[in-house]
Fold this protein.
Amino acid sequence: MCIEADDGRLARPSAFALACPCDVSPHSPPDAKPGWWRWLALLTLALASACSAGATVSVQASRDGDAIVVQATANLRADAHLAWEVVTAYDHYADFVPGLQSSRVIMRSGNSAVVEQRGRVGFFLFHFPLEVRLVVTETPFARVKSYAVSGNFKQMTGTYELNLDGPILHLTYSGRIVPAFQLPPVIGPAAVRHAAEEQFTALVNEIRRREGLTR
């Protein structure tokens, strides 16, 4: 989420991971009327818009054919080397990303690694089991690119970029997800956006936490 705590850190989010959601099981109430999901989507988007007005973190998600495209940005005061350590701490993601049960490097060669992640996250009445294996390529202190080689999806790619402008670190993420399941036409992108915001915010919170420990 994008609420700020009294110490300036973003309030801890509830769930997501480096990877994409790999299954969706929406369960609507048995007496739900046809407009129920549309109403929920509009409410969710309205709340997200109101929250993002004063936020450090900005996350957008949109459809592109069968794909969901995610763009996220954050501006914060942090050391670039410290931020890099957080973004590439794949073995420790489960320690600070809610909903992620395990994250481990199963192979590494220089600036390339294979990362396996498992977990389960939620969004209102949606549930997202995740089970993914990613090939990750690092450009030290500047960029992390990944693509999925297994999991319950057709395609998933993502890129984190770190750019320092004086004391301000610009952290960005861009991703493209093609689910192997049907997403509802209205609530689907909102659900993916919400999950991506939780993951991205968890990374920002962890960077800020570690930055506070060095002062």
The radius of gyration is 17 Å. The first helix runs from residue 36 to 52. The chain is about 25% helix and 40% strand.
